[in-house]
Write a structure and sequence with these properties.
single chain, 5 helices, four-stranded parallel β-sheet, alpha/beta
């Protein structure tokens, strides 16, 4: 598949525990412009910085998947909902502090609309 070409990476936006966990797993990278593929969100992180990181990750050619803590995605829901491209894929994940709630995941909701429940029986 062309979309799964060699050299595609993941980006992570989330709390410190989530991002550090993925960095320890080898996900962290810097692109040619020395920009990281992750953003640690804490109480002092401005909404604009989260939005800008998400939009930047969506526009980068080297990123195939964006992992974002669901509670962070809720902060910028209107921006996440505007992303309709399949690449990069956006996956909302739980954090230690906030469990995953499928009813809040707009991307999962769109995916459910694509399939008939009978397809899975």
């Amino acid at each position: 598949m062309a979309s799964a070409a060699k050299g595609k990476i993941m980006a992570v936006i989330g709390d410190e525990d989530t991002v550090v966990g993925f960095l320890l797993g080898g996900v962290g990278e810097l692109n040619k412009a020395r920009k990281p593929n992750y953003l640690i969100v804490d109480k002092s992180t401005e909404l604009q910085a989260i939005e800008d990181a998400f939009k930047t990750f969506c526009s980068r050619e080297d990123i195939a998947i964006i992992l974002i803590n669901q509670h962070v995605a809720e902060m910028i829901r209107f921006v996440v909902d505007q992303h309709t491209a399949s690449i990069p894929a956006v996956l909302e994940i739980p954090s230690k502090e906030a469990p995953y709630d499928p009813s809040k995941d707009s991307i999962l909701g769109r995916a459910r609309g694509l399939f008939n429940p009978e397809d899975f029986r």
